[in-house]
TrEMBL record:
It comes from Streptomyces hoynatensis. InterPro entries: HTH_LacI, LacI/GalR-like_sensor, Lambda_DNA-bd_dom_sf, Peripla_BP_I. Keywords: DNA-binding, Transcription, Transcription regulation. This is LacI family transcriptional regulator. Pfam families: LacI (PF00356), Peripla_BP_3 (PF13377). CDD domains: HTH_LacI, PBP1_LacI_sugar_binding-like. The keyword Mitochondrion does not apply.
Length: 338
């Protein structure tokens, strides 16, 4: 028949003196290729007049160009907690300029967990970003078992083996309590986050450390765990006031809970900050729109979203890379509530 055979990725790789994976990376614009190898591949493509076939390229890379952002929470938490929208903005920014599309998946019950398991097992996404991690959540273990590239926003514990990114919760909470101590507050309570979450436990630990460093007792009666919701903050504040009516300051482990606490303090005739100083955590839009505006610990939530996305893209491009555990700094933003 005498026709010339169409060049393939294998032909290009042989001409360039590299592996087929390197050719594939050049075709897909991966940064994980040396300048020398990229030049050799591009020269071979030009010499052979190789035209990439998108279907063949998809088969070689086995990519779906889809990333799942999994949030095991209800719609009400997703809509009522500014943290999640900030993470989503950060993830979207991290994917800008790439070919990847973002799938937002909520997991609210066992049925949806089973559906997600089937979806992931079928290879519908290249990797997963998991937000709002609880200590006994089965999802991280499932993702590890599937061998799917995964990065967590948060962690199950300090021993978390998966890639993860979080803010320095202990330092942030400690700074909040030191701020209250510096303003002469004597009885500082805390509305803690859920204690099955590392963020809740770490912010509570920061409260304890700051009090102990100042020679104060970290009394259990001054702790009321809640669930990161406004209603949870309101009920926790009511409980604290009933237990310790002499309290003169509160550190709430989220701005949303602090807003609930503020409403309860006002209902009981306590002036903020005159009678009770109040500090939140997140420095979200909530902190700027309460009356008075909330002093709050700023954590870089959008940066958390961008960072988990960057780590995931690297893991997808270069599977098996060393586990990355990133801790981002926090800062205290003083306002009128303290």
């Amino acid at each position: 028949m005498g026709g010339t055979q169409r060049p393939t990725i294998k032909t290009v790789a042989a001409r360039a003196g590299v592996g087929r994976t390197t050719v594939s990376r050049v075709l897909n614009g991966s940064p994980l290729v040396s300048a020398q190898a990229r030049a050799a591949v591009l020269a071979a493509i030009a010499e052979l007049n190789y035209v990439p076939n998108s279907v063949a390229r998809s088969l070689v890379t086995s990519r779906t160009h889809s990333i799942a952002l999994v949030i095991p929470e209800s719609e009400s938490r997703l809509g009522g907690e500014p943290y999640f929208s900030a993470v989503i903005r950060g993830v979207s920014a991290g994917l800008a300029g790439t070919k990847n599309q973002l799938l937002l998946i909520l997991v609210r019950d066992e049925r949806e967990l089973d559906r997600l398991t089937e979806f992931l097992t079928a290879g519908r996404v290249d990797g997963v970003l998991l937000v709002s991690v609880h200590r006994d959540d089965p999802l991280p273990g499932l993702l590890e078992k599937l061998g799917l590239p995964t990065v967590l926003a948060g962690r199950r514990s300090p021993a978390e083996p998966l890639h993860h990114v979080h803010s320095d919760n202990v330092a942030g909470a400690s700074a909040a309590v030191r701020h209250l101590l510096d303003r002469g507050r004597a009885t500082i309570a805390t509305i803690a986050g859920p204690l099955d979450m590392d963020a809740g436990r770490s912010r509570l630990e920061g409260w304890r450390r700051a009090l102990r460093a100042a020679g104060r007792a970290a009394e259990e009666a001054l702790i009321a765990p809640a669930d990161f919701t406004e209603e949870g903050g309101r009920l926790a504040m009511r409980e604290l006031l009933a237990r310790r009516p002499d309290l003169d300051a509160v550190f709430a482990a989220s701005d949303v809970m602090a807003a609930g606490a503020l409403a309860e303090l006002r209902r009981q005739g306590r002036r903020v900050p005159g009678d009770v100083a109040l500090v939140g955590y997140d420095d979200s839009i909530v902190a700027r729109h309460t009356d008075p505006p909330l002093t709050s610990v700023r954590q870089p939530v959008e940066e958390i979203g961008r960072t988990i996305t960057g780590i995931l893209l690297q893991e997808i491009a270069e599977p098996g890379s060393a586990r990355r555990h990133v801790v981002l700094p926090t800062s205290l933003i003083p306002r009128d509530s303290s």
